[in-house]
Design a protein that fits this description.
Elements lengths: L1 E7 L2 E7 L14 E3 L2 H5 L16 E3 L4 E6 L6 E2 L4 E7 L2 E6 L4 E6 L6 E2 L4 E5 L1
Antiparallel strand pairs: 1-2, 2-3, 4-11, 5-7, 5-10, 6-9, 7-8, 9-11
EC number: 4.1.1.70
Keywords: Biotin, Lyase
Protein name: Glutaconyl-CoA decarboxylase subunit gamma
Length: 125
Amino acid sequence: MSKYIIKVNGNPYEVEVQEIGGPGAPMAPVAVKPKGKASAQAGKAAQPAQPVVASAGDVAAPMPGTVLKVKVTAGETVKKGQVLLILEAMKMENEIVAPSDGKVAALNVEAGKSVSAGEVMVTIA
């Protein structure tokens, strides 16, 4: 049984390799034990990426795309979950909804405008 330390993405792992027979013989599966910092993270589930958050009330583009339709106007009262606009990204139409109740204080986009990820499209007061 031979022991090796292998680094994957900067995390060291200790592995044991057992030779079974001569060259070309199939190898038995060997358990891999994370070492160091990686072992503390091994039991945790992967966290989803969090969207870019501007200041409270700002609705930012979650991804780059093109605004297809704007469904609200400045000064309009909106409810939480109401569709504010349709954003086309990667050939898909995405509904951008109001994160809370309020009034549309600023509308920074119009149909046909391209936006980058994190760009503030609507401000709700």
